[in-house]
Each structure stands twice: as C-alpha cells, then as structure tokens.
Amino acid sequence: MKAACYRSLGPAAEVLELVDLQLPEPGPDEVRVRIVTSGINPTDWKTRAGLRNREPDGFQVPHHDGAGVVDAVGSAVTGLVPGRRVWLHLAAFGNRYGTAAEYALVPAARAVPLPDAASYDLGACLGVPALTAAHCLGGRPGAVAGRTVLVAGGAGAVGHFAIELAKHAGARVVATVSSEEKRARAEAAGADLVVRYTDADAAQRILDFAGRVDRIVEVAIGANLDLDLAVLATGGTIASYAAAGELALPVGRFMVENITLSFVLLYGLSPAQLSAAVSWTSEALDAGALTSLPMLPYPLELVAQAQDRVAEGPVGKVVLRVAED
Fold it and tell me: Which residue ranges does the record assign to the Enoyl reductase (ER) domain (predicted)?
C-alpha cells in the first residue's frame, strides 16, 4: 500500500516520504480501514517535528484522524464488519499505522461508525477537534444543557465543534474571534453572539447579552485570562486545550470564586472519558448537528506541504484526499 511515513524527526520536507508498505493484517482486536480522507491536526506535525519527543518505532505513518471503509477485522472484533463506513480517532497514538496511507490499522475502539448522511470529509474533521471539544464541555450533553458557554477561538477546529456540540445540547453559546472572516465562521456554526476579543468592550458585550458564563472552552488562556475572569460566573469552569507561553494565576480569586481550571490533552483521557466524548460526538453526528470545516485538500503525495500548511494556522481543515468516495 502507498503510505506517507517518517523514520526520524525533523522538517516535513526532509523526513516525510511516500513509500510502499506491506498491507498489514489486523490482530484479534484490530480493524483495517481503507482511507478516503485523512485529517491533519497540529499535534500531527508537532510530533513529526520532534516537539513531543516521541521517536518513531522504526517507521511512523502519521495522522490521528480520518474516515473510510472497514476492509478487514480481527477475530475478536464485534460490531464492525467489512464495508462499514467509519471515522477514526487517535489512529497514530502508540500505533505505526496512522491515516496518511491507503489503509490504516487501528484498535477497533478507535473506529466509529460514520452515518450514511455524513461525508468522509466530515468524518475526517472529527477525532482530535470534536473529542477535545466534547471533553472541554464537560464530557456529556447534560453538563452544558441550559447553561451559557463561552468558546474562545470560535472559528478554529475545536471551537467549531464546541459551538455545535453545545448548541445541540441546549446551551447558549458566545464565541470570541479575531477577525470578521472568523466571525462569519463562528456564526455559521451557530453561536448566539460573536465578539472580537480585541475590542475594548468585549467583556461588557458578553455580560450584557448573556450575563456571566458557566463554562469557557479556552484556546489561549494566557492571553485571554483577564477577559475570562471578567465574564465567568462563581463556580464556573475554564477548560484549556492549548498551551503557549507562561501563565500567572490569581490564585486567591480562583479560590474565592470557586473556579475550576482544567487542562485538557486528548492523549491523557481515561478510557471512560474518551468513550464519553466519542458517544456525545457520535450522537450529535447521527442527529445531523455537526458540519465539516472548510476543506483545504491535498493529495497523499503532497503530505509534507499539507503538514506545513497546518503549521501556518489556516482557517479551515487541511486534509489528504487519499481515495475517491
């Protein structure tokens, strides 16, 4: 099978190559999936570049997320059969065969049925972004039903799904963005109010519209902490899923106002937490409540350019179109 892989860490153009690999056979608890679309996330290029300090075990086919069709199943697998459409998550975590290939080999628990009405592109948008969003929102719809949620970075991948999951669960959603283009993206996802976080009156506009918010899904806590604290309710939660720079906390205020600060990294979730996030995402997907991000497609042979595009932080989802639907 054709596959992108790297055998050492470094710049994309230097270490990523397109090779022929032997088609892997599934073990008892594994499934092999013919990949249609491979989704690329920041964690994919950061791992390849060496920022995660994870040396490949001989070789590594990158990319956690993707969508395709089950091709073969292991002897102990139940609930999935060849021909079933699926979306994949954490495909390359502790596993050589990620989704940047014609076929991926993954534990069966990482392959989730994809409804017939959902495109492979949408399936490839899920995984890291949607599951991170679901956990940041409390891991279950009831955590935000009837509540007010602030989503920082509402035009990003996690922000997009945080808005849609929260709205589907019955929350009121405010989103912050940095530009008019991104405002349109957050509004299209369903945010009830979208403000530019750089505006001097951003906090007051949020308070006037929604009062104090119950939960914040945060992409840049160091930059946004003052705004967050200006609008967060007593007993509220800030769930931060991105790390950049240093952070000084007003510990006394956090204590007095009984604020919870949660740092979220998908790799560190317990099996029960990950399962809850998958269940919520799947339920919303089945209901037609999730939509794909704007697609920025590349062919498999341009995987290095595609990863470099992700590193630039574009608006939209960079994917590899590996095969026809």
Answer: 12-320
| Predicted TM-score (pTM) of this structure | 0.95
Measured torsion, CA atoms of residues 109, 110, 116, 122, in degrees rounded to the nearest 10: 160
Rg over alpha carbons for the chain, rounded to the nearest Å, is: 20
At 152-161, the pLDDT tens digits run 999 999 999 9
CB 98 within 8 A of CB 104: yes
Please give the structure tokens belonging to residue 167: 């709205």
Q: What is the dihedral of CA 131, 180, 152, 275, to 10 degrees?
A: -10
Domains of the chain (ranges plus CATH)? 2-126+290-321 (3.90.180.10), 130-267 (3.40.50.720)
Per-residue pLDDT of 85-123, as tens digits, reads 999 999 999 999 999 999 999 999 999 999 999 999 999
On whether the CB atoms of residues 68 and 86 are closer than 8 A, the answer is: yes
Distance CA 311, CA 309 (A): 5
- Contacts of residue 221, Cβ cutoff 8 Å, sequence gap at least 6: 228, 238, 240, 242, 247
| Residue whose C-alpha is closest to residue 273's, from 78, 138, 165, 149 | 138
Report how far residue 214's alpha carbon sits from residue 156's, in angstroms, rounded to the nearest whole number: 21
